[in-house]
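The authors assume throughout that readers already know how a fold can be written as discrete tokens. A single example would do more here than another paragraph of explanation. An entry of this sort, consisting of the sequence and the corresponding backbone structure tokens, reads as follows:
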Amino acid sequence: MVKVRLWGSLRQAAEGQTEIEVEARTFKELLDRLVETHPGLEPQIRRGVSLSLDGVIYREAWFTEIRPESEVVLMPYMTGG
């Protein structure tokens, strides 16, 4: 199981939860499981999310490996300049 911290508006889409545990080994599996267990997250996930994995931010790195002990934070895409 991977413990995922939700950032910003993702918390609202997950009924106010700040952390969710899911069974996943990659970024893609993580997103698929989150949509299955928390359908309210699907619109934001479709718009785009970033993954902070042990302090490194990934965007669309579908097969990035996630270990159970990893620090995982999911956040909406950041925009601006």
